[in-house]
């Protein structure tokens, strides 16, 4: 099996920042754990690339990014974030495509988009222009310091708001946290605690991002343990701040992550994916369904199932159950899952090289690259798992989608969940028809 092409269907969990940048480079590796310390609290000017290891443009940029980092060493900081692995950081700064380059200057909370060229010389020129602008602002008396403590204060201007942190009390704790369906990260604090004051703006900023990205399914709360001693005593709170994770029907667990907003957001998104339902298994009924599902996902898993007359409802449901189990197993990947009946989307089948035979069939499509990989093994839990596992670790053979574009999709009626029925043939009354006397009965 030949190596899976980088930039096609890569795996964010395996290909880390080290695959593109190493400790020997002058590019600073940035993660949720060090981003606040290295960038937000720094007075330096930063150019930061948000990339994905599977992105071909990112791979092309890497040599120039390294060269620019070396040229700017000691003058401007050059960093890189694997935003495929650290989605919390990418989401925090509105990263939608790769590579995205942002300039973190005087106001670290509102970085600017880098609009220059991608050669090392263009990057250096862009960095020096940004630096000159920063120095000019400082000379004119504008604030040149961008440390978090000088800007963030109580958290109101730091990208988060206290309004997104839920105030929990002895009276509302059980109803909101224990009896609700949401996942909670709860901070137990004391107003006089210095560490709690330091955590406050980070907690507030994280609360805003987590609320938006999980649509309120993961929530951040805070309990003043000096006032609400009933609930604090129940959970044995002895030091401040203490953070606990609450999931419905489970014993609370201690939060073990870092205390920066990036760390908090990353853990919250992990909890969200752990508790999220598997993705919907959608029948391809229109072009909109295919387009939306595939464009919103790095990979789109599409099955072409046998005609209902060949399997009946029970056979089709069997295939769908296998797919649903696999979607649950790989739900953290946030892939899209679709299916179509054989013959319903012939252009799609042709573009995947399925071509009217070999059902059930399955393909994984990367619409950004217009590449796909076909399931070669059995359409079973074992076969599909092996197929998807190979894709996840960057192996497998791929091909270009037929025509280099998404095929035409026909609008079809949704399957009603029942066994198929043969078309009813019309009966014709031939009693009044006179047969020609010359008609040769042997011709029947």
Can you put this structure into words, describing what you see?
By secondary structure, the chain is of the alpha/beta class. The chain has 3 domains: 28-140, Glutaredoxin (3-Layer(aba) Sandwich), CATH 3.40.30.10; 162-275, 3-Layer(aba) Sandwich (Glutaredoxin); 282-400, Glutaredoxin, CATH 3.40.30.10. The protein is built from 13 helices and 16 strands. It starts with 27 loop residues before the first strand and ends in a 44-residue tail after the last strand.
Quick overview:
The protein is of the alpha/beta class and 444 residues long.
Question: Which characteristics define this entry?
Answer:
34% helix; Glutaredoxin; alpha/beta; 444 residues; disordered N terminus; disulfide bond; single chain; five-stranded mixed beta sheet; six-stranded mixed beta sheet; protein disulfide isomerase activity; 3 domains
Q: What's the layout of helices and strands?
A:
Blueprint: E1 28-29, H1 35-40, E2 46-51, H2 56-71, E3 77-82, H3 87-92, E4 100-104, E5 112-113, H4 120-139, H5 148-152, E6 166-168, H6 173-178, E7 183-189, H7 194-213, E8 218-224, H8 229-234, E9 242-246, E10 253-254, H9 261-275, E11 281-283, H10 287-295, E12 300-305, H11 308-329, E13 336-341, H12 346-351, E14 361-366, E15 371-374, H13 381-392, E16 399-400
């Amino acid at each position: 099996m030949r190596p899976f092409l980088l930039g096609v269907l890569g795996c964010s969990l395996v290909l880390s920042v080290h695959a593109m940048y190493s400790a020997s480079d002058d590019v600073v590796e940035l993660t949720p754990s060090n981003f606040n310390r290295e960038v937000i609290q720094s007075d330096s000017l930063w150019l930061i690339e948000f990339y994905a290891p599977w992105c071909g443009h990112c791979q092309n940029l890497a040599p120039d990014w390294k060269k620019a980092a070396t040229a700017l060493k000691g003058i401007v900081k050059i960093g890189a974030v694997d935003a495929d692995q650290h989605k919390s950081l990418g989401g925090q700064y509105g990263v939608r495509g790769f590579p995205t380059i942002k300039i973190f200057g005087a106001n670290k909370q509102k970085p600017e988009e880098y609009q220059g060229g991608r050669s090392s010389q263009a990057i250096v020129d862009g960095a020096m222009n940004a630096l000159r602008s920063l120095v000019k602002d400082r000379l004119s008396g504008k604030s040149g310091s961008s440390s978090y403590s000088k800007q963030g204060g109580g958290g109101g201007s730091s990208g988060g708001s206290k309004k997104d942190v839920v105030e929990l009390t002895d009276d509302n704790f059980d109803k909101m946290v224990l009896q609700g369906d949401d996942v909670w990260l709860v901070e137990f604090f004391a107003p006089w605690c210095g560490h709690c004051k330091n955590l406050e703006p980070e907690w507030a900023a994280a609360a805003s991002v987590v609320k938006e990205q999980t649509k309120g399914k993961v929530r951040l709360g805070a309990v003043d343990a000096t006032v609400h001693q009933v609930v604090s005593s129940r959970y044995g709170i002895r030091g401040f701040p203490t953070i606990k994770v609450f999931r419905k029907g489970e014993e609370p667990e201690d939060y073990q992550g870092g205390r920066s907003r990036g760390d908090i957001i990353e853990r919250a998104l992990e909890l969200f994916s752990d508790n999220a339902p598997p993705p919907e298994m959608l029948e391809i009924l229109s072009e909109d369904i295919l387009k939306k599902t595939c464009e919103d996902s790095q990979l789109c898993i599409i099955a072409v199932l046998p005609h209902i007359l060949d399997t009946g409802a029970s056979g089709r449901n069997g295939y769908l159950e296998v797919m649903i189990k696999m979607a649950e197993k790989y739900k953290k990947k946030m892939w899209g899952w679709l299916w179509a009946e054989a013959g319903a989307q012939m252009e799609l089948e042709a573009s995947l090289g399925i071509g009217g035979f070999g059902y059930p069939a399955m393909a994984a499509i990367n619409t950004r690259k217009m590449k796909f990989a076909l399931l070669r093994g059995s359409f079973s839990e074992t076969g599909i798992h092996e197929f998807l596992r190979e894709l996840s670790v960057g192996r497998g053979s791929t091909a270009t989608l037929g025509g280099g574009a998404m095929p035409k999709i026909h609008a079809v009626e949704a399957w009603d969940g029942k066994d198929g029925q043969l078309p009813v043939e019309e009966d014709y009354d031939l009693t009044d028809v006179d047969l020609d006397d010359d008609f040769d009965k042997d011709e029947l």
